[in-house]
Amino acid sequence: WPLTGALSALLLTSGVVMWLHFKTTTLLMIGLLANTLTMYQWWRDIIREGTFQGHHTPVVQKGLRYGMILFIVSEVFFFVGFFWAFYHSSLAPTPELGGCWPPIGITPLNPLEVPLLNTSVLLASGVSITWAHHSLMEGARSHTSQALLITIILGVYFTVLQTFEYMETSFTIADGVYGSTFFMATGFHGLHVMIGTTFLAVCLIRHTLYHFTS
């Protein structure tokens, strides 16, 4: 599954490029289908191995934890690159940018409107998922279900808000360093939120099926 996952991700990203440049969605749909099938079948095998066959021994669990830690570290550096590009350009604007920030012709979003609301939604989802985790550890099934459902709703709400935010922007990803850093950073962050929401939905389904009980 790692191989098919990597290939489907390649097809998906290549399909996005084809869609943006040549207005064709064939490769994008193939990549999306392959990625969805890989996710479904990979999750199915993990559930079988860990829940029903008992293959997730303490050694395997330790490896999974180390893998998650390394993944989080790589994600931190991934976003550090975007922030570095933003601060490098904003703290010392070059003459090509007009010597000012934001660059001439760019009207930025008001940070006290939708961005502030989205930040509040993210913080609230952090509280609710922590509630779900502690409830699960204490065996409070109903509280776990409620907290997971609230977190999923907040994740969907965040995605909808960001979509409307993109529709309201007066600039595009092609508008110099400001547009590229804004849409790359917020776009990848939104993608992470959508993937995380999907993962939590699977966790909620598994919790409903008593997969996390002893």
Automatic annotation (TrEMBL):
Domain of life: Eukaryota
Keyword Metal-binding recorded: no
Cellular component annotations (GO), alphabetically ordered: mitochondrial inner membrane
Entry's localization field: Mitochondrion inner membrane
Transmembrane segments: 25-43, 64-87, 116-134, 146-164, 184-205
Catalytic activity, as annotated: 4 Fe(II)-[cytochrome c] + O2 + 8 H(+)(in) = 4 Fe(III)-[cytochrome c] + 2 H2O + 4 H(+)(out)
Alphabetically ordered keywords of this record: Membrane, Mitochondrion, Mitochondrion inner membrane, Translocase, Transmembrane, Transmembrane helix
PROSITE patterns registered for this protein in UniProt: COX3
Any one GO MF annotation of this record: cytochrome-c oxidase activity
Topology with respect to the bilayer: Multi-pass membrane protein
One GO process term, biological-process aspect: mitochondrial electron transport, cytochrome c to oxygen
Pfam families: COX3 (PF00510)
Chain ranges of the Heme-copper oxidase subunit III family profile domain: 1-214
Family named by the database record: Belongs to the cytochrome c oxidase subunit 3 family.
Task of the protein: Component of the cytochrome c oxidase, the last enzyme in the mitochondrial electron transport chain which drives oxidative phosphorylation. The respiratory chain contains 3 multisubunit complexes succinate dehydrogenase (complex II, CII), ubiquinol-cytochrome c oxidoreductase (cytochrome b-c1 complex, complex III, CIII) and cytochrome c oxidase (complex IV, CIV), that cooperate to transfer electrons derived from NADH and succinate to molecular oxygen, creating an electrochemical gradient over the inner membrane that drives transmembrane transport and the ATP synthase.
Protein name (Swiss-Prot/TrEMBL): Cytochrome c oxidase subunit 3
Name of the encoding gene: COIII
